[in-house]
Amino acid sequence: MKKEWGEALEIALAVMDPISLAGAEIARDTLREKAPLALEIAEVFKKAGKRLALVGGPVRDAILGRLGNDLDFTTDAHPDETRKILSSKELSKQIEHVWDTGARFGTISARGSGANGESLIEITTYRAESYSEDSRKPSVSYGTSIEEDLSRRDFTINSMALELTTDDAEFIDPFQGVIDLAKRVIRTPQSPELSFSDDPLRMLRAIRFSAQLDFEIAPEVMSALIAMKDRLKIISAERIHDEFVKIVMSDRPRKGIVALVESGLAEIFIPEIPLLQLEVDEHHHHKDVYQHSLTVLEQAIALESRLGGKDLTIRLAALLHDIGKPRTRKLIEGGGVSFHHHEVVGAKMTRERMRALRFENHLIKDVSQLVFLHLRFHGYGTGEWSDSAVRRYVRDAEHLLEHLHVLTRADCTTRNQRKAEALARSYDSLEARIAKLAEEEELASIRPDLDGNEIMTILAVKPGPVIGKAYDFLLELRLEHGPLGKERAKAELLTWWQGQRNA
Coiled-coil intervals in this record (predicted)? Predict the structure, then answer.
Protein backbone atom coordinates (compact mmCIF):
# COMPACT_ATOMS: atom_id res chain seq x y z
CA MET A 1 0.00 0.00 0.00
CA LYS A 2 1.27 3.48 -0.80
CA LYS A 3 3.30 4.96 2.07
CA GLU A 4 1.32 8.23 2.21
CA TRP A 5 -1.95 6.31 2.48
CA GLY A 6 -0.62 4.23 5.35
CA GLU A 7 0.59 7.32 7.21
CA ALA A 8 -2.77 9.05 6.69
CA LEU A 9 -4.56 6.03 8.12
CA GLU A 10 -2.52 6.01 11.30
CA ILE A 11 -3.56 9.58 11.96
CA ALA A 12 -7.19 9.23 10.88
CA LEU A 13 -8.33 5.75 11.94
CA ALA A 14 -10.07 7.03 15.07
CA VAL A 15 -12.15 9.52 13.08
CA MET A 16 -13.61 8.21 9.84
CA ASP A 17 -14.16 11.43 7.90
CA PRO A 18 -10.43 12.30 7.67
CA ILE A 19 -9.83 8.88 6.13
CA SER A 20 -12.11 9.81 3.26
CA LEU A 21 -10.34 13.14 2.90
CA ALA A 22 -6.93 11.49 2.88
CA GLY A 23 -8.08 8.87 0.33
CA ALA A 24 -9.57 11.52 -1.93
CA GLU A 25 -6.43 13.65 -1.91
CA ILE A 26 -4.15 10.70 -2.62
CA ALA A 27 -6.41 9.56 -5.48
CA ARG A 28 -6.37 13.04 -7.04
CA ASP A 29 -2.60 13.34 -6.75
CA THR A 30 -2.04 9.89 -8.26
CA LEU A 31 -4.39 10.67 -11.13
CA ARG A 32 -2.65 13.94 -11.95
CA GLU A 33 0.74 12.25 -11.83
CA LYS A 34 0.04 8.97 -13.63
CA ALA A 35 -3.04 9.59 -15.81
CA PRO A 36 -3.29 13.23 -16.89
CA LEU A 37 -5.06 11.91 -20.01
CA ALA A 38 -8.15 11.33 -17.84
CA LEU A 39 -8.31 15.02 -17.00
CA GLU A 40 -7.93 15.98 -20.67
CA ILE A 41 -10.83 13.72 -21.68
CA ALA A 42 -12.94 15.06 -18.82
CA GLU A 43 -12.44 18.62 -20.04
CA VAL A 44 -13.96 17.76 -23.43
CA PHE A 45 -16.91 16.00 -21.77
CA LYS A 46 -17.45 19.07 -19.61
CA LYS A 47 -17.51 21.35 -22.69
CA ALA A 48 -20.15 19.04 -24.17
CA GLY A 49 -22.28 19.48 -21.04
CA LYS A 50 -21.72 15.92 -19.86
CA ARG A 51 -20.36 14.47 -16.64
CA LEU A 52 -17.42 12.07 -16.49
CA ALA A 53 -16.02 10.27 -13.46
CA LEU A 54 -13.16 7.87 -12.94
CA VAL A 55 -14.80 4.92 -11.22
CA GLY A 56 -14.27 1.52 -9.64
CA GLY A 57 -10.94 -0.27 -9.63
CA PRO A 58 -8.85 2.64 -10.94
CA VAL A 59 -10.01 4.83 -8.03
CA ARG A 60 -9.20 2.07 -5.57
CA ASP A 61 -5.79 1.55 -7.16
CA ALA A 62 -5.13 5.30 -7.27
CA ILE A 63 -5.58 5.41 -3.49
CA LEU A 64 -3.31 2.39 -3.10
CA GLY A 65 -0.70 4.05 -5.32
CA ARG A 66 -0.89 1.29 -7.95
CA LEU A 67 -2.90 2.94 -10.74
CA GLY A 68 -2.27 1.19 -14.05
CA ASN A 69 -2.99 2.07 -17.67
CA ASP A 70 -6.56 0.73 -17.76
CA LEU A 71 -8.98 3.56 -16.97
CA ASP A 72 -12.69 3.02 -16.31
CA PHE A 73 -15.13 5.91 -16.40
CA THR A 74 -18.84 6.40 -15.97
CA THR A 75 -20.91 9.17 -17.56
CA ASP A 76 -24.41 10.50 -18.04
CA ALA A 77 -23.76 10.56 -21.79
CA HIS A 78 -25.35 7.75 -23.79
CA PRO A 79 -23.03 5.52 -25.86
CA ASP A 80 -23.59 7.38 -29.14
CA GLU A 81 -22.78 10.67 -27.40
CA THR A 82 -19.68 9.18 -25.81
CA ARG A 83 -18.48 7.86 -29.16
CA LYS A 84 -18.96 11.29 -30.71
CA ILE A 85 -17.01 13.04 -27.96
CA LEU A 86 -14.10 10.57 -28.09
CA SER A 87 -13.95 10.96 -31.87
CA SER A 88 -14.00 14.77 -31.74
CA LYS A 89 -11.22 17.03 -33.02
CA GLU A 90 -10.42 18.11 -29.47
CA LEU A 91 -9.24 14.60 -28.63
CA SER A 92 -7.78 13.62 -32.00
CA LYS A 93 -4.22 13.76 -30.67
CA GLN A 94 -4.97 11.86 -27.47
CA ILE A 95 -7.37 9.16 -28.74
CA GLU A 96 -5.91 6.76 -31.27
CA HIS A 97 -8.83 4.40 -31.79
CA VAL A 98 -12.49 4.12 -30.71
CA TRP A 99 -14.62 1.00 -30.87
CA ASP A 100 -18.18 0.26 -29.80
CA THR A 101 -18.36 -3.53 -29.43
CA GLY A 102 -19.74 -3.03 -25.91
CA ALA A 103 -22.24 -0.33 -26.87
CA ARG A 104 -25.26 -2.58 -26.23
CA PHE A 105 -24.06 -2.77 -22.62
CA GLY A 106 -23.53 0.99 -22.53
CA THR A 107 -19.73 0.88 -22.97
CA ILE A 108 -17.53 2.65 -25.50
CA SER A 109 -13.84 1.76 -25.51
CA ALA A 110 -10.82 3.61 -26.78
CA ARG A 111 -7.06 3.47 -26.90
CA GLY A 112 -5.38 6.67 -25.90
CA SER A 113 -1.89 8.01 -25.47
CA GLY A 114 -0.67 10.57 -23.00
CA ALA A 115 2.37 11.70 -21.08
CA ASN A 116 2.66 8.30 -19.36
CA GLY A 117 2.16 6.03 -22.36
CA GLU A 118 -0.75 4.14 -23.85
CA SER A 119 -4.01 3.65 -21.96
CA LEU A 120 -7.06 1.46 -22.48
CA ILE A 121 -10.16 3.53 -21.80
CA GLU A 122 -13.69 2.29 -21.12
CA ILE A 123 -16.53 4.76 -20.65
CA THR A 124 -19.89 3.38 -19.56
CA THR A 125 -23.21 5.15 -19.25
CA TYR A 126 -24.68 5.14 -15.73
CA ARG A 127 -26.36 1.78 -15.54
CA ALA A 128 -27.82 -1.06 -13.56
CA GLU A 129 -27.67 -4.67 -14.65
CA SER A 130 -29.01 -7.92 -13.30
CA TYR A 131 -29.42 -11.58 -14.18
CA SER A 132 -32.73 -13.39 -14.31
CA GLU A 133 -33.00 -16.66 -12.40
CA ASP A 134 -31.66 -18.85 -15.20
CA SER A 135 -30.01 -16.44 -17.66
CA ARG A 136 -26.30 -16.23 -18.42
CA LYS A 137 -26.61 -12.75 -19.91
CA PRO A 138 -27.38 -9.62 -17.90
CA SER A 139 -30.21 -7.24 -18.69
CA VAL A 140 -28.89 -3.68 -18.80
CA SER A 141 -30.75 -0.45 -18.21
CA TYR A 142 -29.36 3.08 -18.00
CA GLY A 143 -29.33 4.85 -14.67
CA THR A 144 -29.91 8.52 -13.98
CA SER A 145 -27.17 9.38 -11.49
CA ILE A 146 -23.68 8.34 -10.51
CA GLU A 147 -24.89 7.49 -7.01
CA GLU A 148 -27.35 4.96 -8.48
CA ASP A 149 -24.58 3.57 -10.67
CA LEU A 150 -22.27 3.14 -7.68
CA SER A 151 -24.99 1.41 -5.69
CA ARG A 152 -25.15 -1.38 -8.27
CA ARG A 153 -21.42 -2.07 -8.30
CA ASP A 154 -19.87 -5.18 -6.81
CA PHE A 155 -17.99 -4.04 -3.70
CA THR A 156 -17.64 -0.88 -1.68
CA ILE A 157 -13.94 -0.61 -2.52
CA ASN A 158 -15.01 -0.46 -6.17
CA SER A 159 -17.93 1.91 -5.52
CA MET A 160 -15.87 5.06 -5.29
CA ALA A 161 -15.57 7.72 -7.98
CA LEU A 162 -13.66 10.87 -8.82
CA GLU A 163 -16.02 13.28 -10.59
CA LEU A 164 -13.64 14.90 -13.06
CA THR A 165 -16.00 17.49 -14.54
CA THR A 166 -16.35 19.37 -11.26
CA ASP A 167 -13.80 21.64 -9.66
CA ASP A 168 -10.90 19.80 -8.01
CA ALA A 169 -12.17 16.30 -8.87
CA GLU A 170 -14.96 15.68 -6.35
CA PHE A 171 -14.53 12.40 -4.44
CA ILE A 172 -17.79 10.42 -4.31
CA ASP A 173 -17.95 7.55 -1.81
CA PRO A 174 -21.56 6.97 -0.67
CA PHE A 175 -20.83 3.51 0.76
CA GLN A 176 -17.64 4.32 2.67
CA GLY A 177 -15.48 2.23 0.39
CA VAL A 178 -12.37 4.11 1.44
CA ILE A 179 -12.98 3.04 5.03
CA ASP A 180 -13.33 -0.60 3.94
CA LEU A 181 -10.12 -0.10 2.00
CA ALA A 182 -8.49 1.05 5.22
CA LYS A 183 -9.94 -1.87 7.15
CA ARG A 184 -8.92 -4.29 4.36
CA VAL A 185 -12.36 -5.84 4.07
CA ILE A 186 -14.53 -6.98 1.15
CA ARG A 187 -18.08 -5.69 1.58
CA THR A 188 -20.95 -4.96 -0.84
CA PRO A 189 -22.66 -1.55 -1.28
CA GLN A 190 -26.10 -3.01 -0.74
CA SER A 191 -26.96 -6.44 0.70
CA PRO A 192 -24.65 -9.15 -0.64
CA GLU A 193 -27.72 -11.18 -1.60
CA LEU A 194 -28.88 -8.39 -3.92
CA SER A 195 -25.38 -7.84 -5.28
CA PHE A 196 -24.84 -11.53 -6.06
CA SER A 197 -28.29 -11.78 -7.60
CA ASP A 198 -27.38 -8.91 -9.92
CA ASP A 199 -24.31 -10.85 -11.09
CA PRO A 200 -23.42 -14.23 -9.52
CA LEU A 201 -19.87 -13.95 -10.86
CA ARG A 202 -19.33 -11.40 -8.10
CA MET A 203 -19.10 -14.31 -5.69
CA LEU A 204 -15.87 -15.37 -7.38
CA ARG A 205 -14.73 -11.76 -7.64
CA ALA A 206 -15.07 -11.37 -3.86
CA ILE A 207 -12.64 -14.23 -3.38
CA ARG A 208 -10.37 -12.98 -6.16
CA PHE A 209 -10.01 -9.52 -4.56
CA SER A 210 -9.42 -11.14 -1.19
CA ALA A 211 -6.54 -13.15 -2.68
CA GLN A 212 -5.12 -10.29 -4.74
CA LEU A 213 -5.27 -7.60 -2.05
CA ASP A 214 -4.97 -9.82 1.06
CA PHE A 215 -8.31 -8.50 2.34
CA GLU A 216 -10.79 -10.35 4.53
CA ILE A 217 -14.29 -11.17 3.31
CA ALA A 218 -16.93 -9.65 5.58
CA PRO A 219 -18.93 -12.29 7.54
CA GLU A 220 -22.23 -11.34 5.90
CA VAL A 221 -20.61 -11.62 2.48
CA MET A 222 -19.22 -15.08 3.25
CA SER A 223 -22.64 -16.16 4.52
CA ALA A 224 -24.18 -15.05 1.24
CA LEU A 225 -21.50 -16.93 -0.75
CA ILE A 226 -22.39 -20.11 1.10
CA ALA A 227 -26.16 -19.64 0.74
CA MET A 228 -26.08 -18.61 -2.92
CA LYS A 229 -23.31 -20.82 -4.34
CA ASP A 230 -25.70 -22.60 -6.72
CA ARG A 231 -26.36 -19.30 -8.51
CA LEU A 232 -22.89 -19.62 -10.00
CA LYS A 233 -24.26 -22.38 -12.26
CA ILE A 234 -25.82 -19.81 -14.61
CA ILE A 235 -22.44 -18.18 -15.30
CA SER A 236 -20.57 -19.30 -18.41
CA ALA A 237 -17.46 -21.45 -18.08
CA GLU A 238 -15.44 -18.76 -19.85
CA ARG A 239 -16.21 -16.12 -17.22
CA ILE A 240 -15.55 -18.56 -14.38
CA HIS A 241 -12.26 -19.52 -16.04
CA ASP A 242 -11.08 -15.91 -16.09
CA GLU A 243 -11.77 -15.34 -12.39
CA PHE A 244 -10.29 -18.68 -11.37
CA VAL A 245 -7.07 -17.93 -13.24
CA LYS A 246 -6.82 -14.55 -11.50
CA ILE A 247 -7.20 -16.29 -8.14
CA VAL A 248 -4.55 -18.88 -8.97
CA MET A 249 -2.19 -16.20 -10.30
CA SER A 250 -2.70 -13.85 -7.35
CA ASP A 251 -0.04 -13.25 -4.69
CA ARG A 252 -2.01 -15.40 -2.22
CA PRO A 253 -3.66 -18.23 -4.17
CA ARG A 254 -3.85 -20.45 -1.09
CA LYS A 255 -6.10 -17.89 0.56
CA GLY A 256 -8.31 -17.85 -2.51
CA ILE A 257 -8.52 -21.64 -2.84
CA VAL A 258 -9.41 -22.02 0.84
CA ALA A 259 -12.20 -19.46 0.45
CA LEU A 260 -13.50 -21.28 -2.64
CA VAL A 261 -13.66 -24.52 -0.69
CA GLU A 262 -15.09 -23.07 2.53
CA SER A 263 -17.80 -21.15 0.65
CA GLY A 264 -18.78 -24.19 -1.41
CA LEU A 265 -18.15 -22.39 -4.70
CA ALA A 266 -15.41 -24.86 -5.62
CA GLU A 267 -18.02 -27.63 -5.58
CA ILE A 268 -19.78 -25.90 -8.48
CA PHE A 269 -16.91 -25.62 -10.96
CA ILE A 270 -13.88 -27.55 -9.67
CA PRO A 271 -15.21 -30.19 -7.22
CA GLU A 272 -11.98 -32.19 -7.38
CA ILE A 273 -10.36 -29.74 -4.95
CA PRO A 274 -12.79 -30.06 -2.00
CA LEU A 275 -12.85 -33.83 -2.59
CA LEU A 276 -9.18 -33.88 -1.58
CA GLN A 277 -10.41 -33.49 2.02
CA LEU A 278 -10.33 -37.24 2.61
CA GLU A 279 -11.60 -38.73 5.85
CA VAL A 280 -8.92 -40.22 8.07
CA ASP A 281 -9.69 -42.74 10.80
CA GLU A 282 -7.50 -44.06 13.58
CA HIS A 283 -6.49 -47.16 11.61
CA HIS A 284 -5.98 -45.84 8.07
CA HIS A 285 -3.73 -42.83 8.42
CA HIS A 286 -2.37 -40.87 5.47
CA LYS A 287 -1.19 -37.37 4.70
CA ASP A 288 -3.91 -34.66 4.56
CA VAL A 289 -4.11 -34.53 0.76
CA TYR A 290 -5.94 -31.18 0.65
CA GLN A 291 -3.51 -29.34 2.91
CA HIS A 292 -0.61 -31.09 1.22
CA SER A 293 -1.76 -29.82 -2.19
CA LEU A 294 -2.02 -26.25 -0.90
CA THR A 295 1.48 -26.50 0.56
CA VAL A 296 2.85 -27.89 -2.71
CA LEU A 297 1.26 -24.91 -4.49
CA GLU A 298 3.00 -22.48 -2.14
CA GLN A 299 6.33 -24.30 -2.41
CA ALA A 300 6.11 -24.35 -6.21
CA ILE A 301 5.48 -20.59 -6.18
CA ALA A 302 8.59 -20.14 -4.04
CA LEU A 303 10.58 -21.82 -6.85
CA GLU A 304 8.96 -19.94 -9.74
CA SER A 305 12.08 -17.87 -10.32
CA ARG A 306 13.48 -20.97 -12.02
CA LEU A 307 10.70 -20.57 -14.59
CA GLY A 308 11.18 -16.85 -15.13
CA GLY A 309 8.39 -15.57 -12.86
CA LYS A 310 4.72 -16.27 -12.25
CA ASP A 311 3.75 -19.39 -14.14
CA LEU A 312 0.17 -20.64 -14.58
CA THR A 313 1.29 -24.10 -15.73
CA ILE A 314 3.23 -24.91 -12.56
CA ARG A 315 0.57 -23.42 -10.28
CA LEU A 316 -2.20 -25.52 -11.81
CA ALA A 317 -0.03 -28.65 -11.82
CA ALA A 318 0.86 -28.16 -8.16
CA LEU A 319 -2.77 -27.62 -7.18
CA LEU A 320 -4.09 -30.57 -9.19
CA HIS A 321 -1.25 -33.08 -8.97
CA ASP A 322 -3.01 -35.33 -6.44
CA ILE A 323 -6.65 -35.05 -7.60
CA GLY A 324 -6.57 -38.71 -8.61
CA LYS A 325 -6.13 -39.84 -5.00
CA PRO A 326 -9.80 -39.85 -3.92
CA ARG A 327 -10.71 -42.17 -6.81
CA THR A 328 -7.79 -44.54 -6.22
CA ARG A 329 -7.87 -44.67 -2.42
CA LYS A 330 -7.72 -48.22 -1.08
CA LEU A 331 -7.72 -49.19 2.59
CA ILE A 332 -4.99 -51.66 3.41
CA GLU A 333 -5.89 -54.47 5.77
CA GLY A 334 -4.24 -53.88 9.10
CA GLY A 335 -3.97 -50.13 8.56
CA GLY A 336 -2.70 -47.70 5.99
CA VAL A 337 -3.95 -46.44 2.66
CA SER A 338 -2.74 -46.82 -0.93
CA PHE A 339 -3.29 -44.60 -3.97
CA HIS A 340 -1.92 -46.79 -6.75
CA HIS A 341 -1.82 -45.15 -10.20
CA HIS A 342 -3.33 -41.92 -8.91
CA GLU A 343 -1.03 -40.02 -11.26
CA VAL A 344 -2.60 -41.77 -14.27
CA VAL A 345 -6.15 -41.20 -13.06
CA GLY A 346 -5.27 -37.64 -12.01
CA ALA A 347 -3.89 -36.76 -15.45
CA LYS A 348 -7.15 -37.85 -17.07
CA MET A 349 -9.22 -35.93 -14.50
CA THR A 350 -7.06 -32.86 -15.05
CA ARG A 351 -7.70 -32.94 -18.80
CA GLU A 352 -11.44 -33.30 -18.29
CA ARG A 353 -11.72 -30.49 -15.75
CA MET A 354 -9.53 -28.07 -17.66
CA ARG A 355 -11.51 -28.70 -20.84
CA ALA A 356 -14.74 -28.00 -18.96
CA LEU A 357 -13.24 -24.71 -17.76
CA ARG A 358 -12.24 -23.77 -21.32
CA PHE A 359 -8.49 -23.75 -20.83
CA GLU A 360 -6.36 -23.64 -23.97
CA ASN A 361 -5.34 -26.99 -25.41
CA HIS A 362 -1.59 -26.46 -24.99
CA LEU A 363 -2.07 -25.63 -21.31
CA ILE A 364 -4.31 -28.67 -20.78
CA LYS A 365 -1.67 -30.90 -22.38
CA ASP A 366 1.19 -29.47 -20.32
CA VAL A 367 -0.56 -29.50 -16.94
CA SER A 368 -1.96 -33.00 -17.36
CA GLN A 369 1.48 -34.26 -18.44
CA LEU A 370 3.04 -32.81 -15.30
CA VAL A 371 0.37 -34.48 -13.17
CA PHE A 372 1.14 -37.76 -14.97
CA LEU A 373 4.89 -37.38 -14.38
CA HIS A 374 4.91 -36.02 -10.85
CA LEU A 375 5.81 -39.40 -9.29
CA ARG A 376 8.38 -40.38 -11.92
CA PHE A 377 11.35 -39.32 -9.79
CA HIS A 378 10.21 -41.51 -6.88
CA GLY A 379 9.60 -44.41 -9.24
CA TYR A 380 13.33 -44.75 -9.84
CA GLY A 381 14.01 -45.27 -6.14
CA THR A 382 16.85 -43.76 -4.12
CA GLY A 383 19.69 -45.64 -5.80
CA GLU A 384 22.12 -44.40 -8.44
CA TRP A 385 20.33 -43.51 -11.65
CA SER A 386 21.57 -45.21 -14.80
CA ASP A 387 22.25 -43.11 -17.87
CA SER A 388 19.29 -44.84 -19.50
CA ALA A 389 16.95 -43.80 -16.68
CA VAL A 390 18.15 -40.20 -16.91
CA ARG A 391 17.59 -40.13 -20.67
CA ARG A 392 14.05 -41.49 -20.29
CA TYR A 393 13.25 -38.96 -17.59
CA VAL A 394 14.33 -36.11 -19.85
CA ARG A 395 12.61 -37.60 -22.90
CA ASP A 396 9.28 -37.95 -21.06
CA ALA A 397 9.44 -34.41 -19.64
CA GLU A 398 10.46 -32.82 -22.97
CA HIS A 399 9.97 -29.02 -22.81
CA LEU A 400 8.48 -29.35 -19.30
CA LEU A 401 11.70 -30.55 -17.69
CA GLU A 402 12.27 -27.39 -15.63
CA HIS A 403 8.60 -27.43 -14.58
CA LEU A 404 8.98 -31.05 -13.51
CA HIS A 405 12.06 -30.13 -11.48
CA VAL A 406 10.03 -27.48 -9.66
CA LEU A 407 6.98 -29.69 -9.13
CA THR A 408 9.01 -32.63 -7.83
CA ARG A 409 10.89 -30.47 -5.35
CA ALA A 410 7.68 -28.73 -4.24
CA ASP A 411 5.98 -32.10 -3.70
CA CYS A 412 8.23 -32.82 -0.73
CA THR A 413 6.21 -31.63 2.28
CA THR A 414 7.51 -34.03 4.91
CA ARG A 415 8.18 -32.58 8.36
CA ASN A 416 11.02 -35.06 8.78
CA GLN A 417 14.03 -32.83 8.21
CA ARG A 418 16.41 -35.71 7.59
CA LYS A 419 14.11 -37.25 4.98
CA ALA A 420 13.55 -33.87 3.29
CA GLU A 421 17.27 -33.23 3.08
CA ALA A 422 17.89 -36.71 1.66
CA LEU A 423 15.27 -36.18 -1.05
CA ALA A 424 16.75 -32.78 -1.90
CA ARG A 425 20.25 -34.26 -2.20
CA SER A 426 18.93 -37.06 -4.37
CA TYR A 427 17.24 -34.62 -6.71
CA ASP A 428 20.33 -32.41 -6.76
CA SER A 429 22.21 -35.47 -7.94
CA LEU A 430 19.64 -36.14 -10.66
CA GLU A 431 19.82 -32.58 -11.96
CA ALA A 432 23.61 -32.79 -12.01
CA ARG A 433 23.41 -36.05 -14.00
CA ILE A 434 21.00 -34.45 -16.46
CA ALA A 435 23.32 -31.47 -16.92
CA LYS A 436 26.33 -33.74 -17.49
CA LEU A 437 24.57 -35.94 -20.04
CA ALA A 438 23.03 -32.89 -21.70
CA GLU A 439 26.52 -31.58 -22.44
CA GLU A 440 27.57 -34.91 -23.90
CA GLU A 441 24.45 -36.02 -25.77
CA GLU A 442 22.10 -33.11 -26.47
CA LEU A 443 19.39 -34.61 -24.26
CA ALA A 444 16.90 -31.87 -25.11
CA SER A 445 16.46 -33.37 -28.57
CA ILE A 446 16.94 -37.12 -28.18
CA ARG A 447 16.51 -38.83 -31.54
CA PRO A 448 17.68 -42.12 -33.07
CA ASP A 449 20.99 -42.11 -34.91
CA LEU A 450 19.14 -42.67 -38.20
CA ASP A 451 16.20 -40.68 -39.52
CA GLY A 452 13.18 -41.96 -41.46
CA ASN A 453 14.72 -41.46 -44.90
CA GLU A 454 17.89 -43.29 -43.90
CA ILE A 455 15.84 -46.16 -42.49
CA MET A 456 13.92 -46.51 -45.78
CA THR A 457 17.14 -46.48 -47.78
CA ILE A 458 18.88 -49.08 -45.62
CA LEU A 459 15.86 -51.39 -45.54
CA ALA A 460 14.90 -50.66 -49.17
CA VAL A 461 11.24 -50.21 -48.21
CA LYS A 462 8.62 -47.60 -48.96
CA PRO A 463 6.89 -45.40 -46.35
CA GLY A 464 4.60 -47.38 -44.07
CA PRO A 465 4.05 -48.67 -40.52
CA VAL A 466 7.33 -50.57 -40.54
CA ILE A 467 9.29 -47.30 -40.65
CA GLY A 468 7.64 -46.19 -37.40
CA LYS A 469 8.46 -49.53 -35.75
CA ALA A 470 12.06 -49.29 -36.90
CA TYR A 471 12.30 -45.70 -35.62
CA ASP A 472 10.94 -46.73 -32.20
CA PHE A 473 13.43 -49.62 -32.06
CA LEU A 474 16.35 -47.27 -32.71
CA LEU A 475 15.02 -44.72 -30.23
CA GLU A 476 14.94 -47.38 -27.50
CA LEU A 477 18.54 -48.24 -28.29
CA ARG A 478 19.45 -44.56 -28.13
CA LEU A 479 17.78 -44.16 -24.74
CA GLU A 480 19.35 -47.32 -23.36
CA HIS A 481 22.90 -46.92 -24.65
CA GLY A 482 23.31 -43.29 -25.69
CA PRO A 483 24.61 -42.23 -29.12
CA LEU A 484 25.50 -45.32 -31.19
CA GLY A 485 26.90 -43.73 -34.33
CA LYS A 486 25.48 -44.39 -37.78
CA GLU A 487 27.47 -47.54 -38.51
CA ARG A 488 26.45 -49.37 -35.34
CA ALA A 489 22.88 -48.09 -35.68
CA LYS A 490 22.78 -49.47 -39.24
CA ALA A 491 24.04 -52.85 -38.08
CA GLU A 492 21.51 -52.99 -35.23
CA LEU A 493 18.73 -51.99 -37.63
CA LEU A 494 19.59 -54.72 -40.13
CA THR A 495 19.72 -57.34 -37.36
CA TRP A 496 16.32 -56.18 -36.13
CA TRP A 497 14.94 -56.21 -39.67
CA GLN A 498 16.13 -59.77 -40.25
CA GLY A 499 14.31 -60.84 -37.10
CA GLN A 500 11.14 -59.08 -38.24
CA ARG A 501 11.23 -60.87 -41.59
CA ASN A 502 11.83 -64.25 -40.00
CA ALA A 503 9.10 -63.83 -37.42
Answer: 420-447
Give dist(CA 295, CA 254) in Å, integer: 8
- Which one is the CATH code of 1-183: 3.40.640.10, 3.30.460.10, 3.10.129.10, 3.40.50.150? 3.30.460.10
Compute CA 299 distance to the chain's CA centroid, rounded to the nearest angstrom: 16
- Is 142 in a helix, a strand, or coil? strand
Residue 335 · residue 281 · CB < 8 Å: no
Q: Which residues contact 389 (CB under 8 A, 6 or more apart)?
A: 380
> Is the torsion defined by CA of 9, 12, 17, 18 positive or negative?
negative
CATH 1.10.110.30 placement within the chain:
184-269
pLDDT tens, position by position, 77-111? 999 999 999 999 999 999 999 999 888 889 999 99
How many CB atoms lie under 10 A from the CB of residue 483?
A: 14
Name the H helices within 87-191: 146-151, 177-183
pTM (two decimals): 0.82
| Domain 277-445 annotated CATH 1.10.3210 | yes
Instruction: Phi first, then psi: give them for residue 334, nearest 5 degrees.
Output: 95, 0
